[in-house]
Amino acid sequence: MAEDRRRLLIKGGTVVNADRKFEADVFCEDGIIKKVGRDLKDLPPDARVVDARGKYVMPGGIDTHTHFQLPFMGTVAVDDFYTGTRAALAGGTTMIIDFVLGPKNESLLQMYDRWRGWADPKVCCDYSLHVAVTWWSKQCHEEMEVLVKEKGVNSFKMFLAYKDVFMLRDDELYESFARCKELGAVAQVHAENGDLIAAGSKKMIELGITGPEGHEMCRPEEVEGEATARAITIASQVNCPIYIVHVMSKSAAQAVMRGKENGHVVFGEPIAASLGTDGTNYWNKCWRHAAGHVMGPPLRPDPSTPAYLMNLLAKGDLDLTGTDNCTFNADQKALGTQDFRKIPNGVNGKCHALLDGRPHPLAAHISRCGGPHVCDMGERSVLREDGSLPLRGGHQHQGCPGLQHLPPEGCDSGGF
């Protein structure tokens, strides 16, 4: 009998949900999980069967942080919404949340429409959008409400870094956080001190330090830690929940923990790069290798940082993880051959977001902490912190990312 590829039976695997893991079969039809349980009965005989004995069966992951086809630093990220989301699916991620990010003085609504125009014809998986607020005015104040109430946007990102490009002043941060609070949106922050980075990078060039190591040296982790603490302090003045993107250092992680201990609503997001490698790569004798690791905030040269961040993630002191996938090839990175300030900031990571048969920090995390915690930080945490509804096929999807959560054992989902 020929197989009906619309029907799939995954047999004998270990089903991993956020609450527990258990041995079960999973039956899917037309891409929808229909039944979960042991020795399922009354199944179509023509279903394709996958033997999952000895393997985990996990919900699709949600990557909270991507930058596909982003125009940035004189070039454009090489992963567009087709190649990026296709890689995501190959790595086990079934939803991404990208960032609408444009220059100062441009309408937030125009930027949002541009990103939808890029993404809708190309995406291979569900997606949603954060919107960056890179300048402040009455127009931004009004457009944020339209984005929330008419477009379904639930999160806005502000920058303390990239002086004269994306950076907001403290008074502008205060106003934007207050607006997020009014609208019930989550405020996200890229936390580095832009003024100190500008001064430090100028100093590095004057000292003749032009290579990738200068990138980390001009923005040490104290610069990240200070900005993280300052953002939390400002947000707390208006009782606005705050989400610190790409926590890269011990100093920033400690600021997040202090904020939580003081009763503030703070979420910390380490990324695949900060969990998997360190900043010693900036001193590699191969320039291309070193430049390939340049991102902002930078990886930290303390080799114990990845394990430290992973431990905090395991304990819940940090909350969830994404990739910050923003890929530039070697030729693009070479724009900064003579000046590290011109190296496009960004690394890849999308296809490694979950487990695709290659070494990844989350593999060790599963063995130490258990699969349910990985599901929790990779999927359900997004619902708590961000509340995003995915966009599917260019339309607002009326479900939620949690529909990828597997039903309880023995449940006939009736079209779940």
3D architecture notes:
With 416 residues, the chain is an alpha/beta fold. The chain is 35% helix and 20% strand. It has 14 helices and 17 strands. The protein has helices spanning 81-90, 108-119, 138-151, 170-183, 194-206, 213-217, 221-236, 250-261, 272-276, 287-291, 305-315, 330-333, 361-369, 371-385; strands spanning 4-16, 21-29, 32-37, 47-51, 56-57, 61-66, 71-72, 75-76, 93-100, 126-132, 155-159, 186-190, 242-244, 266-268, 391-392, 395-396, 411-412. A hairpin with a 4-residue loop joins strand 1 and strand 2. Helix 3 runs parallel beside helix 4 (170-183). The longest helix is centred in the middle third of the chain and has 16 residues, at 221-236.
Would you spell out the secondary-structure blueprint of this structure?
Layout: E1 4-16, E2 21-29, E3 32-37, E4 47-51, E5 56-57, E6 61-66, E7 71-72, E8 75-76, H1 81-90, E9 93-100, H2 108-119, E10 126-132, H3 138-151, E11 155-159, H4 170-183, E12 186-190, H5 194-206, H6 213-217, H7 221-236, E13 242-244, H8 250-261, E14 266-268, H9 272-276, H10 287-291, H11 305-315, H12 330-333, H13 361-369, H14 371-385, E15 391-392, E16 395-396, E17 411-412
Parallel strand pairs: 1-4, 1-5, 6-9, 9-10, 10-11, 11-12, 12-13, 13-14
Antiparallel strand pairs: 1-2, 2-3, 3-17, 7-8, 15-16
Helix pairs in contact: 3-4, 7-8, 13-14
List keywords for this structure.
single chain, 416 residues, alpha/beta, 6-stranded mixed beta sheet, 14 helices, 20% strand
